[in-house]
Design brief:
Length: 137
């Protein structure tokens, strides 16, 4: 009976989406990364963004929209700039997470700069998860 419950749990777990965004809520996140700039000084990038599910009727998983609220870079010496290249961050980025956890079906605005699209792809990829069941002895 215990083995049957474990098998049922694994079967149900495979049907669950990799990441779930509850309908009608904005899920707010902060991404932070520090980079060493050619050995001279560290630059820290902080991006605050939100994700909201916009279409949950899709069979492979809900369609989500990502918006960047702020983009700030600062150095270890106290210098900082908000949105240093003055990008238009208001454009939406749509993505879908498949049941396997793979981020798929992205849609970007045609006027978004390549750098902004890359940042949005990185942020969306933080929700990618691929869980595999392993039974080893």
């Amino acid at each position: 009976m215990q083995n049957l419950r474990a098998l049922l749990l694994i079967a149900l777990a495979k049907a669950v989406f990799g990441f779930y965004f509850e309908d009608s809520y904005s899920h707010v996140y902060k991404y932070q990364a520090t980079s060493d700039m050619i050995g001279m000084h560290n630059v820290t990038t902080v991006v605050q963004f939100r994700v909201q599910s916009v279409n949950t009727s899709l069979s492979l998983g809900p369609l989500n929209v990502l918006h960047i609220d702020s983009f700030v870079q600062f150095t270890e010496h106290g210098y900082y700039q908000e949105n240093p290249k003055k990008w238009d961050l208001s454009k939406a980025f749509l993505f879908q997470i498949l049941p396997s956890g793979l981020v798929d079906l992205i849609h970007v605005h045609k006027e978004d700069h390549d750098e902004v699209v890359m940042i949005k792809k990185v942020l969306a990829s933080t929700f990618s998860a691929n869980v595999r069941s392993f039974c080893g002895y």
